[in-house]
Fold this protein.
Amino acid sequence: MRSDFTSSLLGELPLPVRYALEGVREAIPVLDLSRAGHFDEALEYCDKALELNPKLADVWNNKGACLNRLGRNQEAIECYDKALEINPREAST
């Protein structure tokens, strides 16, 4: 849950910036959880972040990586495709 300070700070930002930041905080634990092999838990954080902001290409990519490690390859491909749809410039990474 957001603190009053965070909410007031976000409220002062222009709407496109506020929308872009939604979900970022929820995605922070994903890389640490993935590195520790906790892919199911990392997926939960990805889903929370994407629920708030479905335009986070990095989160779609991270979700795909977690699904891939879990052997859920078709779902992983769909996530990678979504990440590329959002940000085609990242195709080489």
Summary: The two ends are 33 Å apart (CA to CA).
